[in-house]
Design brief:
18% strand; alpha+beta
Length: 165
């Protein structure tokens, strides 16, 4: 999807404040409200904006501990990968799961109450996932930055075509 500098400014603002009113967004990016709404809808329909969500304070909902879990599978067959991925989706506390290149096959991020809560998840869910050969867990001590807005940078410039300024 082609995006210009104004589209990028809209995206920058929405990443910071997803519930901003269209009027306030239009004011911040220098558009009329109707033009701003048209552009925002185009970005949504084009799949650039995939949704809106609320960010919870993990401490307030008793999920203050972040655990990173590296999982190595016993096989790289597509059926093993597919079975693992289907099973991991229902894992309690799961925030993200990534297929990796490197020592581990998958990297999971979980939010848990405490070590005992993680042990329950490990025993009842992770250890029983299809194809798991090893599990390595690391607890974060403190979160320094999380879910920072994507830096979209300036809009790319279009190179001049021969014979055109």
């Amino acid at each position: 999807m082609d995006m210009d500098a104004i589209d990028r400014r809209i995206l920058d603002e929405l990443q910071i404040e997803g519930r901003i009113s269209n009027q306030a967004l239009a004011d911040r990016v220098g558009l009329s409200p109707s033009a701003c709404l048209r552009r925002t809808r185009r970005l949504e329909e084009g799949g650039v904006i995939s949704g809106y969500r609320v960010t919870l304070d993990a401490r307030a909902v008793e999920r203050a501990r972040t655990v990173y879990v590296e999982i190595t599978l016993d096989s790289q067959r597509a059926s093993t990968l597919d079975a693992f991925e289907a099973g991991v989706v229902g894992c309690p506390g799961l925030r993200s799961c990534h297929l990796m290149a490197g020592a581990a096959d998958y990297l999971l991020r979980l939010q848990v109450r405490d070590v005992d809560h993680y042990e329950q998840i490990h025993r009842s869910h992770l250890a029983g996932l299809p194809g798991v050969a090893s599990i390595r867990s690391t607890f974060a001590l403190r979160t320094v930055a999380d879910d920072e807005p994507l830096d979209l940078g300036p809009a790319p410039t279009v190179p001049a075509q021969p014979g055109r300024p």
